[in-house]
Amino acid sequence: MNGVSELLAVCRYEFRMQARKRSLWLAMLLLAGVIALTQGDRGPRYTEADAPASEVMAGWALLFGIVVPIGFGMVLADRLLRDRRLNTAGLLESLPLGPRVLLTGKYLGGLAATALPALLVMLVAGGYESVHRSDPLMLGWAVLAFGLIMLPGLAFVAGFAMVAPLVVTAPLFRVLFVGYWFWGNMLHPDFLPSLSGTLLTPIGDYPVTWLTGETALFAGVPGWLSFLRPEPSGTSVLLSVVLLVLVGLLPLLVAGTVLSRQRRTA
Length: 266
What we know:
The protein is mainly alpha-helical. It is built from eleven helices and no strands.
């Protein structure tokens, strides 16, 4: 097998295994249901009847993107630890696959598996809005909003959720992750310096701003880390998406390098 075939094989296996986890789907159904029912009269369901499809579906993506990644981070937190607990880590290391291929395949498969229920929820929201507003374009905007707003955040979360527990344990990571999520996404920078409203905000402030024409949460707030809060534009949206994906890959790069060196010295 060549490198690409090996990577795809690991990815397919990881996707099938993760997609079968009941906790993944239960977490998605629970969080999505709570969000849809408790959004209040300012949520996307109550947006003006003549609002553009892009604005409506961006609102749904932001609403789901605020809470849903927390559940996915919890689900993925014990993924690599489970290999050790089940004594399969040694078996996997004995395969003619490098640690980088294994980690990358697990990451891509796990990301795809966690993104699938999120995409389906966005399609359900898009279908609801298509019927409610008699606008078939809602489904197309649902897919675009998912790809620009939710998927980069999930990619960001998946990298840390898979690797960080190897260092700090899964329970501690989950506690720290929840604390970071509210600090780095919803805490106003004037109250306490945070990553809220920056290009590195995984709930997708900049794509939401671009799709709706309105500033989402704290995007563009001056002050601490103001260089990471440029004026919203198509360029800043692309930069935010790229940075979130690249930063999410950093833990995999570090872990792959460490494991490769350990294998060579073993």
